[in-house]
Amino acid sequence: xxxxxxxxxxASSDDAPKLTASDLARAKLRVGGKEVSREEFSSAVxxxxxxxxxxxxxxxxxxxxxxxxxxERGYQTLINQALHQAMTGEQxxxxxxxxxxxxxxxx
Length: 107
Hints:
Layout: H1 21-26, E1 29-31, E2 34-36, H2 38-49, H3 60-70, H4 75-106
Antiparallel strand pairs: 1-2
């Protein structure tokens, strides 16, 4: 059967050409349809995601642990999730302590 454009399989992301640094340097970045600088684009992305870039020193064993656990996902995402869990756990603990104190005081 003759291959036509309607019978060709769609290209997978593996078939797409790799982007180079040169390609990225030529990219036009837009926010709200308006062309912006790289700094403005980065700020807009961070504001949208609610994230802030920081520099932090961590033990090598911590980095190794999260890199091994992350696989393809990205170890920084896992570190962020672990910090969220620690923060939430402290909030739950503080609430439970307050409720227990209130209950003990009421009796």
